[in-house]
Amino acid sequence: MVLALAAGLLRTEADLLLWTAFDFKERCIRVEQSQFYGLKSMPSEGTVYLQPEVCSFFEDCFKKRTGDFVLESKRPPKRHLVTYVYYRAPKAQNVLNRWLRENGIDRPRPTLELRKEFGSLINERYGGCEASRALRHSTVKVTESHYLHSKFKPIAGVALDSLG
């Protein structure tokens, strides 16, 4: 859940994320193509910066790790070898999806809603261009059309009392 909400990672990106993608000194995750994961497009590659407490959370997890992947699983990584949908850590994803549905997210892909919320939070604080960059989209238009919702609605105009 933290990878989707605090870092905006897609389910497959989280499933195949290696600990080597973390730079704890710079407080970031470098999303790059690996031997196990091919990017959807070149703009999908990028750096996601983490809040200090999120980085500390992952650093603690790193110290307790038992393998190379962030999401632990006994299943081998083979998404790069098969033509069907395959996840290394389906149990963790299924538990998360069930929890999200029980807590009101009734969409077909509940973990994607966490990524959308990540994009919306970045948008509200820094604007659409930064949200697009953080989500690693090819254009701002993709971000705006699929990922952003805002509690604040821009209203054009001037204060009437300033018109004299």
Automatic annotation (TrEMBL):
Keyword annotations from UniProtKB, A to Z: DNA recombination
Molecular function GO terms recorded: DNA binding
SUPFAM superfamilies xrefs: DNA breaking-rejoining enzymes (SSF56349)
InterPro entries linked to this entry: DNA_brk_join_enz, Integrase-like_cat_sf
Gene3D superfamilies documented for this protein: Intergrase catalytic core
Gene Ontology biological-process annotations: DNA integration; DNA recombination
Name of the molecule in the record: Uncharacterized protein
